[in-house]
Design goal:
six-stranded parallel beta sheet; globular; alpha/beta; 771 residues
Length: 771
């Protein structure tokens, strides 16, 4: 079987210096402007250590300032690019910054694909793949190691040390040092011989012992195991799914599977059993999850079945992340669990990739490189010739259509494990519940009664509200002025904790206003609903019931997710309320009621995916109940009970929803029937931003006409969030039936666009956010 090269034991130089002409050139890419890549000659003394992916220092510009870059190609006369290299006046590489490459050749090829597809500089992509903690050698320290001088090693070998006039202790030190292949530090050698450091220092001064320094990774994090549990019995649907996946693991062939399973259908057990097969073949697996709140539960499940599981998440320290990277690269880790960046784990022998809740928007990176982990995983799995599993109860419509077209193989899990029924889902029409809202605030009378009933029966309750803060609007009742963030066109959110008003986009904070900033009226009104206010309301309605709130405001500290979910699982918390982080993947058998406080929060956003997201969120949170013998019930509060997304969610009808939504997408060539790129132009000057947006749109349209490509340019228009972090924003949508057309026209247009000093613009291929 072909294996991916090992990260730290590889010499990936695709040439033989003895078979080629005597010139050799390195192509170097940078993570900052100028991005390159540019060609540099390799001095003779560096030829043996310049390898693909290694970091080098090179001179750049007329002033020859030093800049750090990555060697992304080695070019000789026989290289396909050899004839295009102008070797005259090439500057030489100054130095090599790493002893060995930090990135495998496989990951380097993946980086090149990301760079080309998402129109992002290659050096920036590599910087994303290799964590800063690895580049900065976090968790390492400089240690001195001792060795014998070469001539002393020879004399020990023939037992001729008498001429050196050494004491018995000094001879013992030299014999101990030369007698094993162990790396000795001065203190370790002194302890082994039973002496102080003084005689060792004397031998070093005489040149008989040589000291060399190198950085050594310190162990900072355990890869521990949970209490082991046995495999669970599979039902016929699960077994059929596992057999299909195992076939491709065993034959080492690529196939992407869409595992479409209702909530609670046992998708995770199929993942685990497939990973067991990969591990039996000596391979590793990557499991991506969308929310950090899922990490503790996922970690426990996998560590109870595998010996070595690394969990990568944002709460790791730099030293811990670097240490995990080293362990993964050395092949010591069987399963890597993490968010989207875990797709870049440097596995030397990858055998399977799993994306759980593949529909989730958090798999899309929101800064450069703006990659989607699902598509990067697809590319990596194809390169490695391994299977990939995309699991979801509510697959993205792009994934669903690919399965319909035969690009992916669909596996259906239509039943919950143990034949448990799906929960009953009902809507509460907030348009007619005036009395209930007046008496009970955001909790309708019907929902309050159901919460009381669930608690009385010993069950637990989950309440979803996808809005942070206490009040979402601060407004003057006299003049109607709304308090906005000065840097964003976003209303400030009232936070009762800390008595502050916060912008959730740029984190601008002020003390909660006591009067209107426009007319001075002191009777300022706080309206709208956030999770803080919901928590206060629930606590007032159920004063003796333990409540826990989970949102980004309460889950900032390391370990906070794990602690909160452990308390809920143990029954110490009876009502768990929060944002979408509690809606996905969590398994609590004692939850008998789920309440969706307002199903309409995202329904009317100016985004063609608004209905899909609403359907998915309701379906996912509904799936958190009915997982035990007590059954479950879901109540969805909404002002739009007739909306197709909400109706389909209440009947667990994904196929019906997709069948209704897909024709609308097809009519406008929206994904999955076309491809989109979004260009966002921003500047402190609204005039400059608009001028640049017009110029970009005209240049792209002209380029498409010249290339005779069918490209649809919409805009420019003011972005839905007009001002963000002090910059005015315009956006342009470019549509095409084929993704290659987008890359080609935008890339060529980019070479002709005339920049304006205070204007920035970004390109987002396959955008997930239209706001």
């Amino acid at each position: 079987m072909d294996q991916q090269p090992s990260l730290f034991n590889t010499d990936p130089r695709p040439w033989n210096l003895h078979d080629q002409d005597d010139w050799i050139v390195a192509r170097v890419a940078f993570s900052a402007a100028p991005y390159g890549p540019y060609d540099y000659s390799i001095p003779a003394e560096l030829e043996k250590i310049v390898t693909l992916g290694i970091r080098v220092a090179v001179p750049i510009g007329r002033g020859n300032r030093s800049m750090e870059g990555y060697c992304v190609d080695i070019i000789t006369a026989a290289h396909p690019l050899g004839s295009s290299v102008n070797r005259n006046r090439l500057k030489p590489i100054t130095s090599v910054l790493d002893k060995k490459s930090l990135i495998t050749t496989g990951l380097l090829e993946l980086a090149k694909w990301i760079s080309e597809y998402y129109l992002c500089p290659l050096g920036t992509v590599i910087d994303t793949i290799v964590p800063p903690s690895v580049r900065n050698q976090s968790g390492t320290r400089e240690i001195q190691f001792l060795s014998l001088a070469p001539e002393i090693q020879k004399q020990i070998a023939i037992n001729q040390l008498d001429d050196l006039k050494l004491s018995k202790l000094q001879i013992t030190i030299l014999q101990t040092l030369g007698g094993t292949a162990q790396d000795w530090t001065p203190n370790e050698l002194a302890e082994s011989v039973g002496c102080t450091i003084v005689p060792i220092s004397t031998l070093r001064k005489r040149g008989l012992i040589i000291a060399t320094s190198r950085r050594v990774q310190q162990k900072t994090h355990e890869i521990a195991s949970e209490k082991r549990i046995d495999d669970l019995d599979l039902n016929p649907e699960q077994q059929t799914a596992l057999d299909a996946i195992n076939h491709h693991i065993e034959s080492n062939t690529h196939q992407t599977f869409l595992m479409h399973g209702v909530t609670g259908s046992g998708k995770t057990e199929v993942y685990i059993r497939a990973i067991q097969t990969a591990v039996e073949f000596g391979r590793q697996a990557i499991v991506l999850v969308p929310e950090i709140s899922l990490t503790p539960q996922t970690r426990q499940r996998f560590r109870a079945r595998f010996d070595n599981v690394a969990v990568l998440h944002s709460h790791l320290t730099a030293a811990q992340r670097a240490w995990h990277w080293q362990q993964i690269a050395a092949g010591h880790v069987q399963v890597i669990v993490g968010a989207r960046s875990a797709i870049f784990a440097p596995t030397p022998n990858l055998g399977l990739i799993v994306l759980d809740e593949e529909h989730d928007g958090s798999f899309k990176q929101d800064n450069a490189p703006r990659y989607h982990a699902r598509d990067v995983a697809e590319c990596r799995a194809a390169q490695e010739k391994i299977p990939q599993i995309l699991g979801s109860a509510t697959p993205s419509l792009e994934t669903w259509q690919r399965a319909i077209d035969g690009q992916y193989k669909k596996i259906s899990l239509t039943k919950r494990v143990l034949d448990l029924p799906l929960p009953d889902v009902a809507t509460i029409d907030l348009r007619i519940d005036f009395d209930g809202r007046k008496r009970f605030g955001p909790i309708s009378q019907k929902l309050r009664q159901e919460i009381q009933s669930a608690l009385s029966d010993g069950g637990q309750v989950i309440l979803l509200l996808n809005r942070r803060g206490f009040s979402t609007r601060i407004q003057c009742p006299d003049c109607g002025e709304v308090e906005y963030c000065p840097d964003c066109s976003i209303p400030l959110t009232h936070h009762q904790e800390g008595d502050k008003a916060v912008c959730h986009y740029c984190d601008h904070q002020i003390p909660n206003p006591k009067k209107c900033s426009k007319c001075g009226n002191p009777s300022i009104r706080f309206s709208g609903l956030g999770t803080q206010k919901l928590e206060q309301t629930v606590a007032a309605l159920f004063p003796d019931v333990p409540i826990m709130r989970m949102d980004t405001d309460t889950m900032r500290k390391p370990g906070s997710h794990e602690k909160a979910l452990a308390q809920f699982r143990a029954g110490e918390t009876k009502i768990l309320l929060g944002t979408q982080m509690i809606a996905k993947g969590l398994d609590f058998p004692n939850v008998t009621l789920v309440g969706v406080i307002n199903a309409d929060t995202a329904l009317h956003l100016p985004d063609f995916r608004a209905s899909e997201r609403t359907f998915g969120l309701i379906t996912q949170v509904a799936g958190r109940t009915g997982r035990g013998s007590k059954g479950g019930r879901v109540l969805v509060q909404t002002f739009n009970p007739e909306n197709k997304a909400i109706v389909s969610a209440t009947t667990h009808d994904y196929i019906g929803f997709a069948s209704t939504e897909l024709p609308h997408r097809a009519a406008f060539h929206y994904p999955p029937f076309g491809h989109l790129a979004r260009i966002v132009v921003r500047s402190p000057s609204v005039a400059h931003a608009e001028q640049m947006a017009d110029h970009i749109a005209e240049t792209i349209a002209a380029e498409a006409k010249e290339l005779k490509l069918e490209i649809n340019v919409l805009g420019p228009a003011v972005a839905p969030v007009e001002k963000l972090r002090g910059n005015y924003r315009f956006h342009i949508l470019i549509g095409a039936l084929a993704p290659l057309a987008l890359q080609q026209v935008i890339s060529r247009a980019g070479q002709r666009i005339q920049e304006i000093d205070d204007v920035q613009w970004i390109v987002d291929i396959d955008p997930q956010d239209m706001v």
